[in-house]
Amino acid sequence: MKKADQITGALLLALSVYIALTGLSLELWWGDEGPGPGFLPFFVAVCLAILSLMLILSTLKKDNKVQGNVFSQEGLKLLVTIIGSSVVAGLLVNFVGMIVAMGLLAGFLVTFLAEERKIFTSIGMMVILPLVLYLIFRVGLDVPFPKGILGL
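User: That's the sequence. What structure does it adopt?
Assistant: Structure tokens below.
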């Protein structure tokens, strides 16, 4: 698993460099109508590069434990839960709105995935993630979200 993580991290890092260079070749910053076409690819590439480096560096730790097979019964249960909850959240968007649906998804996943289920962490994510999404997309980029019955 350690070697696979190193190879995956290196490939993703190379991909992020390519995407960042492509994004830089396009117009990156704001024009009259908002960010240029290179804005999103460049900043996604920066995030991917950071995460790739974190993956590579995590394999260098001596106490790096080998994780179980992702295709085990527990791994498949986790995969189905994540995909299923994401589909349910997607279906809820038109009913309750994007902000509420993402808050519910974040709260559910934090509660389900946490080893220690703490109510304050779940509630915090239910509030923080939608707030961050709202500030980035609605306030910063002026992208409208689907609104639900609550008008959010």
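The chain has a mean pLDDT of 82.
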